[in-house]
Amino acid sequence: MKVLVAIKRVVDYNVRIRVKTDGTGVETANVKMSMNPFDEIAVEEAVRLKEAGTASEVIAVSMGVKQCQETLRTALAMGADRGLHVLTDDDLQPLAVAKLLKALVERENPDLVLLGKQAIDDDSNQTGQMLAALLGWPQGTFASKLVLADGTAQVTREIDGGLETLALTLPCVVTTDLRLNEPRYATLPNIMKAKKKPIEDVTPADLGVDAAPRLEILSVAEPAKRQAGVMVDDVAGLVDKLKNEAKVI
Questions:
Q1: pLDDT, tens only, 85-107
Q2: 5-38, pLDDT tens digit by residue?
Q3: What phi and psi values does residue 193 have, to the nearest 5 degrees?
Q4: Where would you tag: which of 57, 115, 116, 147 has the fewest CB atoms within 10 A of its CB?
Q5: Is the CB of residue 59 less than 8 Å from the CB of residue 1?
Q6: In whole angstroms, what is the distance from residue 18 CA to residue 219 CA?
Q7: How far is CA 86 from CA 40, 98, 157, in A?
Q8: Closest CA to 128 of 147, 155, 107
């Protein structure tokens, strides 16, 4: 069984986001980058499937500039077997990523595709669903538990009313949520081993995909700063302000 895992290079979650002075986007120059946290969970789950003997090969895929290979090396150090890098300087949007993943799926023929439910930079939460639609495969989103057996994937997902369990026929697409697992730290020996694992470079043209953006970002602005709260002396004062100023009661 082959598992394909899509990972994205994003601004590290510990970094305070700053908007460019010209308002065209988020500042990424000289900013620490790392693997999207939800994608780390996807990699961990794929590696656990391999360690359990369920999966035979784990392939990590990343798309973007040359520096994405650093993110792929992290996935290889966590336990992925090989990497695929779609090299492009274009600003890839969810539909383009889904089309590129579809082309790679048709080439690699995996039984399972794992993705993080969303990336923390754009929060689109679209790629997994778009990929499943393009492939015509069943999908399980926001997975908090994944069990593979007898050619099916049982996906437990959190919904407003509790938990929902889906039985999906393989091959399928699954997007991971926070409670699925706790990603491991890459050890130094595994980091050294990852340097010898293969990473194949391809381009959107090699895959026959037009990755040109369909959407245009007009401007990016920081949210307005929150104003200081107002202290009241007693409950009567609070009720008066809620009724006459805020007009919520």
A1: 999 988 899 999 999 999 999 99
A2: 999 999 998 888 888 888 888 888 888 999 999 9
A3: -65, -35
A4: 147
A5: no
A6: 14
A7: 19, 12, 30
A8: 155
